[in-house]
Amino acid sequence: MEHLSYAYGTNHFDQASELQAVLKHLWPASGDHWEDLRQFGALAGQELYEASYHIDHDAPPVLVAHDLDGNRIDRVRLSPAERQALAATAWITQPPYRGEGWLYHYALLYLLADPGLGCILTITGQTAYALHKYATVAIPQADAIKDALLSGKAWGATWMTESQGGSDLGANQTVARQSGDVWLLTGDKYFASGAGLTDYAITTARPESGRPGPKGLALFLLPRLTREGTLNFHVRRLKDKSATRAVPSGEVELNGSEAYLIGQADQGIYYTLENLTVSRLANAVVAMGIGKKAQLEVIQRVVRRQSFGHVLETHPLIRRDLTDLTVRSAAGLTLAFYGVQKFDGAWGDRPPYSGRYHLARFVTHLAKSRTADHAAAMTALSMELFGGLGFLEEYGVARWHREALITPIWEGPSNIQALDFLETVKRQRAHQAFLSEIVPMLDHAGTPEAQYARVQLERHLERLATLEGREAEWYAKESLTAVADAAQVALLYDMARSQGEPYAHLAELYSIRFLRHREYPFAVDQEANLWGGGWR
């Protein structure tokens, strides 16, 4: 692997100056976990880095339909490398339930930054989350199941998507019929990540008496085995995906499958959206982690490769591109962890939710959508900076662009994020709490770029708040992007208060490039600490 990747064998926490700064700023207690993060950074840069490459290239999960006796088992065979990687990372789902908070969990997920392995951990954590908050006595051994999920003894999944609806959960057709102590589910789940690996899934279904649309959905716990120990559902096939190959994604058939109601039937859509918030934040954090992995490869490439008689990093256009990687990396990560911080303070809320929970949802939509843009752009640019080698699958950098391309799609593409973002503005008025936090950051900075960011922020939110119907939807995605960009400017300025002047400079550069849509100023050509990766 050392011949295929520059980033391999390095400590990814030691190289993640952006992560260190964000944790210091948003999570004062992070110092208590610094050594654990450093140890995990070493693991992420070596054993896990090599394992994820091997799984992607050589050893993805394989579906085994029957055992030696001819029994239908629908189980995946994992490579030893993947089993070892999952055993080494299963614990990162535990911190929120040990009182250590979501920032610790997501910091570890950022360092891992493999969306295949990360998906397995996230959907397992989401299953534990639903049981932790909403399991009732109707679910046998709910606490034991949660403990098994959090310890890596069992794996979870979130099966919501159906072929006829995709992100439109209201179009789901899976039906639930109560039969004594259990419910019997019938229907198909079309994009079921964890298929063949999962021991317990949470899934949506519509009770026979349920109303149409999303509010008629209930949430259920679906075990792999029935009470008699027989197979409870069938895996039709695994998907042939461009990336995220470590997580087996397939099609699952439910034919009178036994399941247990989670919480109240008429609250199922709210439980489901809560779980989506957990995974959308994971999507945002991992998107920036993927971008960082590609950046680590590039930083070493440009000091080794020569072009036109000079080392690559001496060329102005290369420095401009390196600047773009640095600015996007710092800004996107700040927004993602601001969303995590908001969620960390509100995740105990239940329906009907408080204003702080609606604020967490509002920020999550900003983070999920914009970090996906950053990841796709950063990894594409990284491939380009490698030249022809960047397009060869045998080397480390090519995979990161493939991995990044799922981040705009998973857990709702940008159009869905825009619609949900619009809903938090129109119905919950969450933008008012958001402005009360973000505007003072910009006012405190007091620079022309901060003032411009405030104008853009208020203009777009005022427009969304006043427009109605189809016209509001038409502008929702543009406004989401602009609000997210203004928020990143504000958050970078706020970071400067505790982490130093370089963050104020990054705020100005971000505003120039993404709010004013102008090129980075040429003066940055001489700022080696910034574009060279050592800006802090």
Automatic annotation (TrEMBL):
It comes from Sulfobacillus harzensis. InterPro entries: Acyl-CoA_dehydrogenase-like, Acyl-CoA_DH_CS, Acyl-CoA_Oxase/DH_mid-dom, AcylCo_DH-like_C, AcylCo_DH/oxidase_C, AcylCoA_DH/oxidase_NM_dom_sf, AidB_N. Belongs to the acyl-CoA dehydrogenase family. GO terms for molecular function: acyl-CoA dehydrogenase activity. SUPFAM superfamilies: Acyl-CoA dehydrogenase C-terminal domain-like, Acyl-CoA dehydrogenase NM domain-like. The lineage of its organism: Bacteria, Bacillati, Bacillota, Clostridia, Eubacteriales. Pfam families: Acyl-CoA_dh_1, Acyl-CoA_dh_M, AidB_N. Residues 157-255 form the Acyl-CoA oxidase/dehydrogenase middle domain. Keywords: FAD, Flavoprotein, Oxidoreductase. Residues 266-420 form the Acyl-CoA dehydrogenase/oxidase C-terminal domain. This is Acyl-CoA dehydrogenase. Residues 10-137 form the Adaptive response protein AidB N-terminal domain. Its cofactor is FAD.
